[in-house]
Specification:
The chain has one domain: Rossmann fold. It starts with a helix and ends in a 12-residue tail after the last helix. 41% of the residues lie in helices and 9% in strands. By secondary structure, it is of the alpha/beta class. The relative contact order is 0.17. It contains 14 helices and 6 strands. The radius of gyration is 18 Å and the shape is globular. The chain binds adenosine-3'-5'-diphosphate (A3P). The site of adenosine-3'-5'-diphosphate has 19 residues, from helix 3, helix 7 and helix 13.
């Protein structure tokens, strides 16, 4: 199948998805989680890579034989539902992970999460990012990545984002679904991109207490420094420079890493329409985001 077909959006059980994230469906649904797995669950572009790397360093940073591991992060933290021609599937990579715990990434909306994760009572780290910055980041990502559908111009993409016609569907439904889960599932930790920007050390402390980790002060210092934006941008194992489908000349994967870049993209009209739509879609939600820090 050609790239355009694979990346095209279609309705999948009520959510806009593409073949790259649904063609391995049965295998993914039958995935066997283990009680010590850690699942990192996010809407795309919420800061997934950042949190995956923090967890990778917290768990394995000290035991790694080299100062910086030589295996790309996307292999150390497999993307569960991803299936790309001539590459191992995310599910197979996860099955074969030699680490304990296994760190596994997903963008699935909550209703699509394989049931084994719930049965095994797996710890879940859920990352949120304010909708406007999330939309901007997603737009640039779709421009540079052939795995994603062509975004069109910014206003076209923004309209599609508001209508949930982007891969993984409505941002609003996605975040609300994950947020509501905390009422029935205690082993979930919600983390906000904006909080991580504001105080990375404090958020790492919170993560550690959720995960039952107690790194030394030096170790924590080392992790905090290694995951700063500029360091990750230079780090070939995390900056996706090895990913073939990404054209980093169009837009780098480690693009800006800030809160409030939406102000450089939204017109006044776009902002008003977005906020109005947001108010409607989020009116029953207790989720509070900051779109500036
Ligand atoms: P921008 O496009 O706004 O720069 P994901 O990993 O979910 O795809 O999210 C990618 C977004 O997280 C990008 O946002 C990227 O720059 C940002 N990001 C990645 N690592 C970061 C870091 N260490 N500090 C701040 N932002 C980071």
């Amino acid at each position: 199948m050609d790239v355009n077909h694979q990346s095209a959006i279609f309705d999948f059980h009520g959510v806009s998805m593409s073949h790259y994230f649904t063609d391995n469906w049965d295998e993914v649904q039958n995935f066997r989680a283990r009680p010590d797995d850690v699942l990192i669950a996010t809407y795309p572009k919420a800061g997934t890579t950042w949190v995956c790397y923090i967890l990778d360093l917290l768990y394995f940073g000290q035991t790694s034989p080299e100062p910086q591991p030589s295996i790309p992060l996307h292999e150390r933290v497999p993307f569960l539902e991803l299936i790309k021609p001539s590459l191992p599937t995310g599910k197979d990579l996860a099955d074969q992970l030699p680490t304990s715990p296994r760190l596994i990434k997903t963008h699935l909306p909550i209703q699509f999460v394989p049931k084994s994760f719930w049965e095994q009572n797996v710890r879940i780290v859920n990352v949120f990012r304010n909708a406007k910055d999330n939309a901007v980041s997603y737009y640039h990502f779709c421009r540079m990545n052939t795995t994603m559908p062509e975004p069109g111009d910014w206003s076209t993409f923004l309209q599609n984002f508001m209508e949930g016609k982007v891969v993984y569907g409505s941002w609003h439904d996605h975040v609300n679904g994950w947020w509501d889960k905390r009422q029935t599932y205690p082993k979930i930790h919600h983390l906000f991109y904006e909080d991580l920007i504001q105080d990375t050390g404090r958020e790492i402390d919170r993560l550690c207490s959720f995960l039952g980790l107690s790194p030394s002060a030096e170790e924590k210092e080392r992790v905090t420094s290694e995951v700063q934006f500029d360091n990750m941008k230079q780090n070939k194992m995390v900056n996706c420079s090895t990913v073939q489908s990404m054209n980093q000349k169009v837009s780098p994967f480690m693009r800006k890493g800030t809160v409030g870049d939406w102000k450089n993209h939204f017109t006044v009209n776009q902002r008003e329409a977005f906020d109005e739509d947001y108010k409607q879609k989020m009116k029953k939600s207790t989720l509070q985001f900051r779109s500036e820090v």
